[in-house]
Amino acid sequence: MSESGRRNPANHGGRDGGGRGDRSNVRRDAKGRERNRGPQRGFSASAPSQRTRRADPARLVAFEVLRAVASEDAYANLVLPARIRHHRLDKRDAGFATELSYGALRGQGTYDAILAACVDRPLAQLDPAVLDALRLGAHQLLAMRVPAHAALDQTVGLARAVIGAGPSSLINAVLRKVTARTLPEWLDHLLAGESEQTKIDAIRHAHPEWIVRALRQSLVAHGRPAEEITELLEADNAAPVVNLVALPGLGSLDEALENGATPGPLVEGSALSSGGDLGRLSSVRAGTTRVQDVGSQLVARAVAAVDLGNATREGEKWLDLCAGPGGKATLLAALANESGATLLANEPAPHRARLVSQALAAVPDSAWSVRTGDGRDLGKEQPGGFDRVLADVPCTGLGALRRRPESRWRRTPKDLAELGPLQRELLESAIDAVRPGGIVAYVTCSPHPAETTAVVSDAVAKRDDLELLDAGAALDAVSLDGTLGAGHEQTAQLWPHLHRTDAMFMALIRKKS
User: From CA 311, how far away is CA 303, in angstroms rounded?
Assistant: First the structure.
């Protein structure tokens, strides 16, 4: 991390205790020049000629990420690597930029509450670029091991370089107010006298209030105590470890393990990465070793492993109904390739279908094909045509907030209502597409009951030829220790605070013979 703009202390020559007529106590710099005439003004630690006027590259990357997220609806995990490469950051600066970007995005709600107490106008009236710079400064001051003078100087220097001299003065003044308290002190100050627990949790753990309520409700719906909400919110705010998977029969983790990765404790063929540029690993470049959350790995392996009563899986037809961008589809295709089955990966958006094809390229093409089209039509077009169907439907993503921190501020309760009909239609199509005796795995990266158990219950209640299999037992069967404990009333829910995975939900529905 570059700290070339750190300030040099000056000889202040005494405290400013009197009015302008008291010349004996006036503040002067090392050369004897009077620096601040008004007794009410703060005394800067450096002269104007010494102040940083350029953007530190690591902080500039973080600023560009926040700007892209705010102004372009971009995803930080897609923007950040490109900006790191563009600015040619070394490993240390890349790590700093990553922590600063994700930390400022995760803590946005809390930092905004603190900044609102330090600004003399509503935050909505600030220029969005200024607000993003303030959030970056607040995260450095309150949650990173960056000296306060460096955080102030470098953030103001960034503002001078990319926003302007006028806004930089405002940013300097506001961030100096932020330094008046530590983060715990700010939280105590903001929450003094507050009795509503949801609001307390929202400010303390940087989640919108509606998501706090939704996650607490989700815990109870899936058989967990509501009191686990604190652990869940804290897990959402912890930087996730990068999970790797070696495609069965095709990839190897040897190179990753030689470069600091450790074997994954939950599922075969997985590893936990120590970080760094994974693109330098030949197996990653070849696509046979991939970055994939272990929750997704467990789900894909469970779908492939369910016993359908056949002696072999040779000749089976599998379907990934909503395959983009291709992570689970690639693991499924590798498993299909091993067992003599074939996979059809369906994706409605052409550009995402191309991503699926690119991901699948690491697997022999005899094991897979890609269809570009609406998954809601497949059940009618190919009724009973598949033995195993994965319906990993579009959802709010409330289970992946630790990996996509901007999503918590982007999603609204309205999304639940809008996604519900689509989720039900896709599940209905999946059920139509599976043969009698086959299974459908309904999967979401959200624990919300409106997206999980309610959708499954509605689908099963409409027909008399469906039954739920024990999804928790299916996940246990493909895990290394067999005791995940994710099952509840025949469905399964993984949790960040319990399993160190995304909060993946899975229900296994069998169509009766």
Answer: 17
Active site residues: 445
Alpha carbons 202 and 210: distance in angstroms, whole number = 9
Do 109 and 250 reside in the same domain of the chain?
no
CA dihedral 18, 22, 23, 25 (to 10 degrees): -30
Q: How far is CA 93 from each of CA 2, 62, 97, 257, 505, rounded to the nearest angstrom? A: 8, 11, 6, 24, 36
C-alpha to C-alpha distance for 237 and 228, rounded to whole angstroms: 15
Can you give the residue range of the structural domain that contains 113? 57-183
The CATH number linked to 82 is 1.10.940.10
Total domain count, the chain: 3
- Residue 451 and residue 423 in contact, taking contact as beta carbons nearer than 8 Å: yes
- Residues in CB range of 42: below 8 A, 6 or more apart: 36, 176
Query: Can you give the pTM of this predicted structure?
Result: 0.87
Taking only the tens place, the pLDDT of each residue in 286-297 is 999 999 999 999
The encoded tokens of residue 228 equal: 């686990």
A 10 A CB-CB count for 70 gives 19
Tens-place pLDDT, residues 213-229: 999 999 999 999 999 99
The two tokens of residue 171 are 């940013």
Q: Is there a contact between 305 and 220 (Cβ–Cβ < 8 Å)?
A: no
- Given a cut of 80, whether residue 98 has pLDDT beyond it is yes
Q: Is pLDDT at 211 greater than 80 in this prediction? A: yes
